[in-house]
């Protein structure tokens, strides 16, 4: 299994649904023997530039370890969830459990 860092931003009107979304993505990863090494809910933050006339969004960062099939499921669920404005998945060399400095 490989290590990935994924970040997604959620529309501010859907901020109440973020804990349920996190739990759904957590069960997707852990149900197929994956691991979540770090999960950070950064909350609402100002965007660098407006996306669809939205100036703030809810940010979530996760460091996970999973297989390609699980990663495909996560990416599919990000693409077809209207509340997710943007997402980014990066392959990492190892698991990051703390902040990098």
Give a description of the structure:
The protein is of the alpha+beta class and 101 residues long. Helix content is 25%, strand content 48%. It is built from 2 helices and 4 strands, in the order βαββαβ. Strands 2-3-1-4 form a 4-stranded antiparallel sheet, covered by helices on one side. It is globular.
Helix content: 10-25%
Which sequence of SSEs, written as H and E, runs from N to C?
Answer: EHEEHE
Overall body shape: globular
Number of E-state strands:
4
Q: What are the segments in which pLDDT stays under 50 over at least 5 consecutive residues?
A: none
* SS content category: alpha+beta
Q: Strand portion, in percent?
A: over 45%
Treating each run of at least 4 consecutive H or I residues as one helix, how many helices? 2
Q: Terminal Cα separation, in Å?
A: 25 Å
Query: From the alpha-carbon coordinates, what is the Rg to the nearest angstrom?
Result: 13 Å
Mean pLDDT: 91
Strand order of the largest sheet: 2-3-1-4
Largest sheet: 4 strands, antiparallel
Oligomer: single chain
